[in-house]
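Build the 3D complex.
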Amino acid sequence: MAAAGPLRRIVVAGDGPVGLLAAAALKRSLPPCDVVVISAPTGAAAFADRSATALPFTCRLHERLGIADTALLRRAAASHRLITRYFGWGGSDSHGVAAYGAELDPAMAGAFARSWGGGQRNVSADTAPGSIAEVLADAGRYAFPLADDGGAAGAVDHAMRWNTGAYRQILSEAAAQLGIAGLAGPVVGCKLDGQGGLRSVATAADGDITADLFVDCTGPDAKLLAALREHAVIDWADRLPVRTVYLAEPGPPVLALEDRMTLLPQGWLSELAGRDGLQTTLAASRSLDPQEVRDALGAPAAEAIPIGPARAKASWLGNVVALGDAAARFEPIGGYPLDLAHRQLALLLELLPSLAFAPAERAEYNRRAALMADAVRDTIAVHYAAPAAMAVFGSQGRSAQLDRTIDQYTRRGRMPFREEAPLAGQEFCALLVALGFAPGTTTLAAARPADEAAVAAAFAVKARSVLVRTPPYAEWLAGQLSA
Amino acid sequence: MKASLHHRVRVVVLGGGTAGWMTAAGLAKLLPDHAQVTLIESEDIGIVGVGEATLPHIRAFVEKLGIDEAAFMKATHATYKLGIDFRDFGALGTSYIHPFGSFGEEVAGVGFHHWWLDQARRGKAGPLGDYSLAVAAAQANRFRPPAQDQSLASTYGYAYQFDATLFGPFMRSFGMANGVIRHEGRVVSVERSGVDGDVTALILSDGRRIEGDLFVDCSGFRSLLLGETLDESWEDWSEWLPCDRAAAMPCAHVLGAPLRPYTTATAMPAGWRWQIPLQHRMGNGYVFSSAHLSEDEACTAIAAAAEGEALADPRVLRFRAGRRRRSWSRNVVAVGLASGFLEPLESTSIYLSQMAITYLIELFPLGGHCDPRDRDEFNRLVDMEYDRVRDFLILHYHATTRSDSPFWNHVRTMQVPDSLTDKLALWRDAARIEKYSDGLFYDASWFAVYVGQGMVPQAYDKRTALADPARVGRAFDALRKAIADEVAAMPGHADFLGHEAARLASAA
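Done.
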């Protein structure tokens, strides 16, 4: 066995939420390792760092890393999202709901079934009679965990949103508590190590800073990764049409279990409910005049941010790993930018190298990180493939995988399995329906049509039972805040 | 709304072997209003039927068809299977079980196998199998169905070892009871449409003409429709999987020997031999490379190696590793050997048929017309399944230090597929396992074979160095004891089978 031990020193460049959480995660994973964060602005287009929300995965990552939900609720004005409503995507006046949570086949519940498979692939996407999450969101009721009365709770999952400044502060304190040192940035230079990686990065105050591993969380400029000769970018411009994102000043506080995505003639409008204020975002593929923006946002834009969607061909080169916006940049639909950053961070934790960097390990990271990024790109691209979105955004190129998925879902009711996807099969089905794609009938459903009335009645019973046991969200939240 | 009988798709299954009857029974049972299933078989044509050992997925098939497990096991003289014991593969004198189950658990974000490698390097780890409930139970010849929860007792699964010559007939009775129409006869010619080249009818030797909309080719290696008629090309994998013959010989059980809940695969000078314990006998066979051993030599070798009284003379089967480039072409879908073959080292034959049937049902041409997009999807899925199994099989041959025969020298030194080369480098350099969640054989399987065949990685996760070794040691001891306790509470395999038989008898 090689004598190479664990990493001794890691430098994280970029002190946005992505960099801070990465530093904390790495320090927890390698307590004796010296972890240093260099402060650096990540830029206006750093949508992962600026994100006020992510997907359910982030809640689990936070829990694993000791970032408590209650801290976010109390200090970062956090709240829970169960569903996203989609307006206009299937045609004017259309309305759909995409919920989180996938009802696990009982046969897949055991540990063996999960490690040997045989159930998760090619989810049969028979349309559910309704969504418990939607029922809860409509009623304004939620508590976590849900009182379980036999399965209903398993079908509901949540994501959170928070105040970004306060979130960053919580992460910063968590990093400090773990003994992570901060150095004043920004990074003003990089020295190559002659082996495809970096020997050091330089700041004005501290000069050259060396490390065994550099984590690039500097935002879309990817200052560290881009300094390497092998760095290359895969352009997503032909797949993702948005070129400008307009942000409004935060609106009044909104407490809701849902967020909204509306298709407008100008582009898409996202309304993210927040206890600290409603965040409204408009994304367009063409340049809009100020009046068009005002019409959509209801106010003049506070910021207009240009974007060029792309991902790094390899986000780990030499001893440099790029996370978040430094690895992939694209429009901030839902929580995808931060979700991708966090799943790639979890992948880095899983494949954490030792001092002896193994090229095969790096290749495996890059293979899986690329699958993750491309699956997110396709999940976003499916929005632009929605019937009404084509008229607004024009026709985009699509991956073979995405074409196949849409075709199989709409004709056969099948959801082909995808490795490293951001949404579970059932969640992706829900998104497709919300976007106006009508599911095809599965072969087995055609062979044995369900008794729709009975199924609907059973759902109603289940929904009532959950509603009775679940308090109003505001009431539950007040309890959490005062406990 | 029920489809009217006039619109049922006429499905013609050619071949009455395991794949044919599984397909016919599955379609007839699950799509009664959409498929009118006809099967053509000939008593003159024997079936291969070596698929005596299965994978846990078979249970889902049996269950989906609504077949009672105990009745099924009784009819096929089945036993329970917890995995495969591989002997002499990595080196002569070594042995390991590849279980239907996992090993230990991830700790502090680091996979169990890194902890085991670290303990092993310190000389503190027991044999890997001590940390797998499936392995420990198999070694103790005990069995009980797994729990359906998150406990230790849920960390394994099981499959069946059954008499393949009884499985086919069982599926035949089931299929015919569910409306499959059976024709006895030989196909002498195939009629095709002058318009689009689709197959329209099969002509039997007595002149009968069997028309269909969809033809399922289960004619075995002959691949009469897909290969001979449509000339779908064959991708040959014999450079990596050189075994192309099997000499099979059933024997009586050795009196007094325990009934093993696992299959045994023992490496031989020119291949390997199986021992598959059934209720009433022991299946034996020598899978070998005809380039390295003659058929007569193989028959002599299996007769000498097999324990127990021989119940028949060795019978030689011929095959070759590979697959058709497309398993679904025009209106012909091949299932089983007509589609491809991977030798039975990991009991994947019936699994591959089952998966093809599952995908065929999902993509079934409900209106009778085969959509090219569904064909492509079917072929993509089948290819993915074959490719993953192929690499895993090659690993068993390639990861060896054996140099005692030309066969083992060949497989040890051969160039393996690039997809496998990458996986091997990842293990060798970092003790990582290439991750995928679709297809067959995940982390635990690769880990079992890597370690079992003596592939010691050059490095593993160094976070293991940060833990207190004494604490890790105690956790290992605790896991080993919990597994031993669990096994001690299980009934013996033969006892459990007897109990099930008694339950069935009393229910009857």
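Chain A has one domain: 9-447.
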